[in-house]
Write a structure and sequence with these properties.
Layout: H1 3-26, H2 30-37, H3 41-70, H4 72-92, H5 96-123, H6 130-155, H7 161-183, H8 205-208, H9 212-217, H10 220-235, H11 243-250, H12 256-281, H13 286-307, H14 314-335, H15 339-346, H16 352-379, H17 383-405, H18 410-413, H19 415-422, H20 428-432, H21 438-447
Helix pairs in contact: 1-5, 1-6, 1-7, 2-3, 3-4, 3-5, 3-16, 4-5, 4-7, 5-16, 6-12, 10-16, 10-17, 11-16, 12-14, 13-14, 13-17, 15-16
């Protein structure tokens, strides 16, 4: 990675962390703000969250094509603008229509930022550095969200609407800061995604004719990765705010304050363990790392189930539940340097934005379906079925990951080793862009490394 690419990557990561900090200021308090501060009721508050997700689902199918044709920078600017306007709209809204419109704008803005920033990170990294770049993004996102939620919680008072207005103004300012920081970034022209000032010349007639989705669906490895991604996000992230929280309070009988401690344990594991885990997994097969995550999460769900069966030993039940969240955090640190870089390595250069947007869409679908299923099972009291379902999903992650590993090339499944082996005659960036010698790839595949 060149010095210019490294500097651009640092700026992108910095802007992303500041935006996450702003999002952490408001995301945990949207429901309370709509239902209690603006006195719009829990029905409207629930609709705010639903509109946020629906707006993301509406814009993501079109985001990838725009990134591939115009570059990621204009999309990032648009996302920052929509996010800022949405945040200011929340601050000023006093009726249901106002908060719903603001939620739609913010949801769309946050959604399009995800694939745009991911494409920028790909452009500023090579095969040997991409895992670390995405791990850093994940680390900074969680750190920003955690700190934002902490400071936001200290500032807000539901009896003083002005404190919430201040939070939304701060979030809007963070979106503006993100746009300003990105304006100082010039993406390298040699990467798969070009600077907005130099639109991609790699988008051929197929992309312009709208066949980019067809090309993606014909990529069996990418389709399988999307299925794997859906199960991953459904089994973990999609349960945090619905089924698992309900199970913790209704079955394990912990207090909301203790649930907050469990969530803090999840964040603490991510922040403290990310780079230690990165050193352990970045040289190993990505498919096997993801398969191990499935096993770890299956253990986590078993621990959650056990926490509801321990009667008369609340301390043990609480420890099991906190351990569940900690194990989820450990799995997340293993996924951050594997899944997102794998999307980038599967994507043809001209469809980098399309692949990133498709995977973001899959994630958003899982985050919409997960809470709905978890909430439904919790509402009917089917907690035993709930735990069995999630243990099965976690083990399904392992099976899907090993299946995917059989379809991946050595460069895709174990890029660090492939770059080192091929480095005697080729650069890491050559391999990242598919320019390596076929003889070397064939030899690596035959050796099973």
């Amino acid at each position: 990675m060149t010095t210019a690419m490294s500097a651009a990557l640092r700026r992108i990561q910095c802007g992303n962390a500041l935006a996450a900090f702003g999002n952490g200021f408001t995301a945990p308090f949207l429901f309370v703000y709509a239902s209690r501060v603006r006195d719009l009721g829990e029905g409207t508050a629930g609709a705010v969250m639903a509109v946020f997700a629906a707006a993301a689902l509406a814009v993501l199918p079109f985001t990838g094509r725009v990134i591939d044709r115009r570059g990621p920078m204009p999309v990032a600017y648009l996302g920052s603008l929509l996010g800022a306007v949405g945040a200011l709209g929340f601050a000023a809204a006093e009726n249901a229509l106002g908060v719903l419109a603001s939620s739609a704008l913010m949801g769309a803005g946050v959604a399009v930022l995800q694939p745009a920033l991911a494409t920028m990170i790909v452009a500023c990294s090579g095969a040997a550095t991409r895992s670390r770049a995405f791990a850093t993004q994940f680390f900074l996102n969680n750190l920003g969200l955690g700190l934002g939620g902490l400071f936001g919680g200290l500032m807000v008072d539901e009896h003083r609407p002005g404190t919430f207005t201040l939070l939304f103004v701060i979030e809007a300012a963070m979106f503006v800061v993100l746009a300003v920081v990105l304006a100082t970034v010039r993406l390298p022209l040699t990467g798969p995604a070009h600077d907005s000032r130099t639109p991609s010349r790699q988008a051929g007639p197929a992309a312009q004719a709208g066949s980019d989705w067809r090309a993606l669906f014909q990529d069996r490895s990418m389709v399988l990765l999307c299925v794997l991604g859906f199960v991953l996000f459904f089994a973990c992230y999609g349960q945090f705010e619905s089924g698992l929280s309900a199970y913790a309070i209704e079955v394990t009988r912990i207090s909301p304050a203790t649930l907050g401690m469990a969530l803090a344990a999840n964040t603490a594991v991510i922040v403290l363990a990310q780079y230690v885990v990165l050193r352990l997994v970045e040289r190993r097969r990505r498919s096997r790392v993801v398969a191990l995550v499935g096993v770890i999460w299956a253990v986590a769900w078993v621990a959650a189930g056990a926490s509801g069966l321990v009667h008369g030993a609340q301390a043990v039940a609480t420890a099991l539940l906190i351990g569940t969240y900690a194990l989820f955090g450990l799995g997340e640190t293993m996924l951050s340097p594997t899944v997102a870089p794998l999307v980038a390595d599967l994507a043809p250069a001209r469809l980098m934005g399309q692949y990133n947007s498709a995977f973001a869409l899959v994630k958003q679908l899982a985050l919409a379906v997960g809470p709905a299923v978890g909430g439904l099972l919790a509402a009917t009291g089917a907690y035993g079925l709930y735990i069995v379902l999630l243990v099965g999903c976690s083990l399904g992650v392992s099976v899907l990951a090993l299946w995917l590993g059989r379809r991946l090339t050595p460069v895709q499944d174990r890029p660090y080793r492939s770059v080192v082996v091929a480095g005697r005659s080729e650069t890491a960036d050559d391999l990242a862009h598919g320019q390596g010698a076929p003889v070397k790839e064939h030899a690596l595949a035959a050796s099973g490394n």
